[in-house]
Design brief:
Alpha-Beta Plaits; four-stranded antiparallel sheet; eight-stranded mixed sheet; homodimer; 18% strand
Chain lengths: 364, 364
């Protein structure tokens, strides 16, 4: 991290990344660019970037890592325009909230050196003035390696994620988009639709008299920035459309239960949702001792994606990940730390089934 | 309030009403009944009721006021069974979360002496052990007078509401049910449906990695008690069915905007919801000086409903209401306190248009 990092887009997320990295022990040389010169100036003044470039192309010149933090719908065009300008050994990552199209565009421009990312942190505020170097502490940061992703590019990006205090979670890009449609994009549209229905009738005083904490909670996100949300939904249309169809089906089937006075069906539906909600946010069990795994891996694309998504599917929490490249080249050693004996054992079994010679060792 | 009050159902709401009234300067003689003898014993032990009756019929004997706090779907049958047992001069009110059917049943059993109510306060906890005499402080308490409601019954109930620290808001029962479907019952069903969709796929770890504060907020109420919600929705089926149809329509129309890539439509929808949400929960303007209104009113049913719903429609906040019965009988003086000169003027005009000789006076 001692080398040059380019941050393209110095709003809330880009500015927070810059502040977080600048605060680190080995603060890199950070150059920023934002089409809004005022935003870039604020980021510079706050110390989120060390210098401001006059263009994206200038910013990426000589960079070891490029972190693209612009609006997600502008990313594909930006990648294409930077393809020739990003140094051939630089790693490129992004923070877009949808990943399928972005990853396809990133890999088309930068090949194995592109690693899609999506930090799960934000704020109701926006812009460089609201940036916070601790925004990502204890947050999840989704990374979406594919069969093409290079191990070393992935490791560089996880290093940045760790430096910011976040935990990397690997997901397939399409799985990411489907899940994020369900836990973020659909709730956003539903919250807005509920506000729309509520204010369609009744005076403000009557509504306020009736609207309790529940309504406040459910509709809080309806106050979000519409431009941001148009960009987000534009970048994930298929998963959102699919989710809307499912939500409509769900509501229609509920309506049929009600119309048929089948109260047992209504109760089962509410009970299942209640259990799922309680379980989802229950305090996690103690993860157990950290267990180290290590294995020799061929130095080829796809290894990282295979290993990390295997861990994700098993629910094994990768607490640390390191790649030690062999001096002979052609292969390297992958070292993981997983929480809990049981998770580590399941992961070793899965990795062996996939052909890796994974070994387990206790970490002190 | 020095006379006997019967509380039927001594759970969270009934117990909290009892504790709140018992703490008052003129704490009445409170008798409680609950089909669950343990709940009644807890209420007695905590001082929410002074004594426990062996049956609902026994509890209402000699009562000046009966407050029905049982599950809303059981109310109509309970009213019918108590019709012969409630003293002929007693006022009856309830706390059910749906009002159309309850008010029809209440008026059929108790005529003009029935006043429907719905306190807008609750808690995620339930049962007598969670009861809190301050639960209703600063909350709205919807009352649903109709053309049949007697002025003195309404005044008695508002006295209880005020004694508990809540503000009475008058609404037509059907308007109440429509609004409450939109701000409470539909959000509940939508939150449960969103949880159901989210957990249909992905591991817990993946979901937790992606689900941010927004998802937590939107789905918090999905953890509510399913039995309670079946009872609530059962008691308001028409408005909920109507709301579900509207919500489905809304989502379908959104889906068509997305499928047609009509991003301007999506933006307008999100922007309208954002403005409405911000406006709804904006800090209210300073209400202005309290202004007293007074008028002679005929001592006939319907007067209260007419006056209070006129105020509600104008958005005028009735801060206090008192009825002074004329010694000659046949008419009385209605005294109101309204916040703000402008509201008071509008209300006086409206009341005069309705044939009342309303006068305005400054309150010190």
């Amino acid at each position: 991290m001692g080398r040059r990092v380019a941050i393209l887009g110095t709003g809330l997320i880009g500015g927070s990344i810059g502040l977080g990295l600048a605060a680190g022990r080995l603060g890199p040389d950070i150059v920023g660019y934002d089409p809004d010169a005022r935003a870039a100036a604020i980021a510079r003044k706050r110390g989120a970037v060390g210098s401001v470039a006059g263009s994206a192309a200038e910013a990426v010149t000589g960079a070891a890592m490029v972190i693209v933090c612009m609006p997600v719908d502008l990313m594909p065009a930006s990648f294409a325009s930077l393809e020739e300008r990003v140094p051939p050994d630089a790693v490129v990552t992004d923070v877009g909230s949808a990943k399928g199209g972005v990853v396809r565009a990133g890999e088309s421009a930068f090949g194995a050196r592109f690693v899609g990312g999506h930090p799960m942190a934000g704020s109701e505020r926006h812009g460089a003035a609201a940036a916070d170097g601790r925004l990502f502490e204890a947050a999840s940061w989704i990374l979406t390696p594919t069969a093409r992703t290079s191990s070393s590019a992935y490791a560089s990006v996880t290093e940045v994620v760790s430096a910011l205090g976040a935990t990397a979670v690997a997901l397939d890009p399409e799985v990411h988009d489907d899940l994020v449609a369900r836990v973020s994009h659909l709730p956003q549209l539903a919250a807005s639709a509920l506000v729309d229905l509520a204010v369609g009738t009744g005076s403000r005083k009557e509504l306020l008299g009736l609207a309790g904490a529940g309504f406040r909670d459910v509709t809080r996100i309806a106050a979000s920035n519409p431009d941001l949300w148009v960009a987000i939904i534009k970048s994930n249309p298929h998963a959102v459309l699919d989710g809307l169809v499912r939500l409509e089906d769900r509501l229609r089937s509920l309506r049929h239960s009600l119309a048929g006075e089948r109260w047992g069906e209504l109760r089962s539906f509410l009970e299942a949702a209640r259990s799922a909600r309680l379980e989802l946010f229950a305090k996690p069990e103690f993860g157990g001792h950290p267990i180290g795994l290590s294995m020799l891996v061929p130095d080829r694309p796809g290894v990282l994606a295979e290993v990390t998504t295997a861990a994700g599917e098993l629910g094994a929490n990768i607490e640390d990940l390191r790649i030690v490249h062999s001096t002979e080249g052609g292969r390297g050693r992958l070292e993981l730390v997983v929480a809990g004996e049981a998770s580590a054992t399941r992961l070793v079994e899965r990795l062996r089934a996939l052909g890796y010679r994974a070994e387990k060792e206790q970490v002190s």
